[in-house]
Amino acid sequence: MLLSLYVHDILIVGNYLEFFQTIRRWLSSTFEMKDMGETSYILGVNIHRDRSNRLVAF
């Protein structure tokens, strides 16, 4: 699990869907937040996914 936070932007990346959902539920119950879905670009960084090989590259 990777959680990147910068001012008011947060990016969560992880291999385990159940743990990811638990973290997301806790964060949204603790803080006001909006789930913007999957991203391909954040804070000047392009994110590339290779779903067939389960890889994420920055």
From TrEMBL:
Domain Reverse transcriptase Ty1/copia-type positions: 1-51
Superkingdom assignment: Eukaryota
InterPro entries: RVT_2
Protein name: Reverse transcriptase Ty1/copia-type domain-containing protein
Species for this entry: Vitis vinifera (Grape)
